[in-house]
Structure of Sperm-associated antigen 6:
Amino acid sequence: MATTRAILQVFENYQKARNVFVDSCVELNMEVLQNAGMMQLLKPMLLDYVPVIQQTAALGLCMLANYNEKLAESLVTEGVLEQLVYSLNEAHRLNKKAAACILRAVAKHSPPLSQAVVNCGAIQPLISILAEFDPAVKEVAAGACGQIARHTPQLSQYLVDTGVITPLFLAIQEPELPLRRTVASTFSEIAKHTPELAQAVVDCGLVPFIAPLLSHLDQKLKREVCAVLSSVARHSTELAQVVVASNVFPKIFLLLKDTDPMVRRNAATVIREVCKHTAELAILVLKCGGVAALVDNVSEVSGPERLPGVMALGHIASFSDSLASSVISANALLPLLDSLTNETEDHIKSASAWTLGQIGKHTPVHAKAVAEVGVLPQLLYCFSSKRSSEDLQTKSNRAMSAIINCLDHPPALDCLLQGRYIREPILKYIIAKIAKLVPNDGDFRTKLVNSGSFSKLQQIQMSASSDVKELIENINKEFPTELVHFYNPKHATFIVAPPKNQSQNLKCA
């Protein structure tokens, strides 16, 4: 008959074997373990009477849920979430943390998975955990709320209606940096969706509290603070004014020089979201030195980090000719042209084309400034290239149209006409503008002939649409008939030399 010690040894061996099993699962290949039935074995261990085994089993399931969306979905179908809600209500803080980790990992993948977390009744326990003493537990709960909120306005609204704002605001006042970062990120995810959700964030007093954190030494915290401010400011003039009233200018301009790329990008995004609403806000950014800071930012960075600065300059320039002149005076044109020419992603080129169009659309002076740096040929290339996305072609077309409509600088038009292949929509803009300038500018008429543009116009007339032909006919009326015949392919076989005193005839015509 077995002794008491022998019986206890059996239980001890069982305990050790379970520990070895759950520890090994955490370190092995997730897909192989899932195919071997790991989830079905770990699920009962979430309710084990030994806390360490509960927590290690939760860690294994968390890694499964993190691995990919398919494995996270299998946790839902296996009914694991309901057991996690039970763990959230337990007294042991580490069990709560482990359960919240799994919920965060499941919710991050998609709106349906986040909705599954909501449907299992996890929100109220997660909000309760935000009042825990342990900052690490509060951090995980806040992260789970953020992953749920990020997907849709409806999920964010449910969190707000359930009462998540006040506990989050209390949590961000804690001194622990990881907790502050996570809570700030969650506020950003809530505020980004709708003006109503952003207003709920503002109403708790968050913006005046976090604005001074822009000067904090922790770069990750500064990233999240900028993200919150941009998520609030993006929706309306009133919310943007709340951000401005918290004295973020001009200190946020210093973050455009930060060593962390995400801090620089998020800071530029805040400026963009503020200045896009009204001319008054754009003027405020200008008076605080924001335009010069943005130009430096666009000049020094590249890739996705460049995008918010490029768009901010476009928003500022769009409101009035004086603001556009300030952007030109800050030497923004060459960095914007570089972005249009050398960036590899089409959406960044599209933003650059749009901004250049906003600068050049106001008056002939602005259009000439844009044309003189060589913007128009590059816009034409982006519009004509088969490699360009549809959005880039559209933005380039609109930018060229806006600039050419104001342009009265003959050399730029003449140079543009020299392009090898010009699609008809743009060709029509160019020829229409030339037709307006030719009657009153003899020097321009001479330049058209000497540069070969006049000859090209006659060639274009042979195959152009009726609208373009009519424009070219109007141009030809300003030139001597024999000169028109000389350069017209239909008459070229009968005329062997251009008329004498060509330049004099053109200037006097």
Observations:
- The domain at 291-407 is CATH 1.25.10.10 (Leucine-rich Repeat Variant).
- The chain has a mean pLDDT of 83.
- The two ends are 126 Å apart (CA to CA).
- The chain is about 75% helix and 0% strand.
